[in-house]
């Protein structure tokens, strides 16, 4: 168990310690967490999701649980955040307006620029609005 504990990423050790402390509380006998580990032999950083429960409430002597490698999911989420930031920077740079239009519901979600272009049609309304023509431009 010491090897496993040593493999927890230094910045995430506090999360695991908080979980270990929390499950000693009789009112809390289960846990779920996501944190990084450093491979014991290969030194590779990975993300894992763990969940489980304790036996003997208040004085846990054993845990049973699962561990799932979610490294690729975390990498994908980070890549998506990076792409979204790049897209937003490009939109801001050239002053584009962005909207989405739900044809079935007949509603549109407009950004602030397009609201300004269309003027008073959306003044004071929520982000979901339709133009005075009943539809967004396009």
What order do the helices and strands come in, and which of them pair?
Elements: H1 2-7, H2 13-22, E1 30-38, E2 45-55, E3 62-69, H3 71-94, E4 99-102, E5 107-110, H4 112-118, E6 128-129
Antiparallel strand pairs: 1-2, 2-3, 4-5, 5-6
Notes on the protein architecture:
With 138 residues, the chain is an alpha+beta fold. The protein contains 4 helices and 6 strands, in the order ααβββαββαβ. It has helices at 2-7, 13-22, 71-94, 112-118; strands spanning 30-38, 45-55, 62-69, 99-102, 107-110, 128-129. The strands form 2 sheets. The chain has a 3-stranded antiparallel β-sheet, with helices on both faces. β2 (45-55) and β3 (62-69) form a beta hairpin. The longest helix is centred in the middle third of the chain and has 24 residues, at 71-94. The protein is elongated, with a radius of gyration of 24 Å.
| Count of separate DSSP helical elements | 4
Helix content: 25-40%
Radius of gyration: 24 Å
**What's the N-to-C terminus distance?**
62 Å
CATH class of the largest domain: Alpha Beta
Residue windows where pLDDT falls under 50 for at least 5 positions: 123-128
> How many structural domains in the coordinates?
2
CATH topology of the largest domain: Beta-Lactamase
| Envelope shape | elongated
The helix-strand sequence is: HHEEEHEEHE
């Amino acid at each position: 168990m010491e090897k496993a504990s040593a493999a927890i990423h230094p910045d995430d050790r506090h999360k695991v310690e908080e979980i270990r402390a929390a499950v000693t509380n009789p009112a809390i006998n289960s846990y779920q967490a996501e944190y990084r580990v450093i491979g014991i032999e290969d030194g590779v950083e990975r993300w894992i999701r763990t969940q489980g429960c304790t036996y003997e409430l208040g004085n846990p002597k054993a845990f049973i649980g699962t561990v799932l490698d979610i490294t690729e999911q975390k990498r994908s989420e980070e890549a998506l955040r990076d792409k979204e930031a790049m897209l937003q920077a490009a939109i801001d740079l050239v002053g584009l307006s962005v909207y989405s239009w739900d044809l079935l519901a007949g509603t549109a979600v407009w950004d602030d620029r397009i609201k300004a272009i269309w003027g008073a049609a959306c003044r004071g309304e929520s982000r979901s609005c339709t133009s005075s023509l009943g539809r967004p431009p396009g």
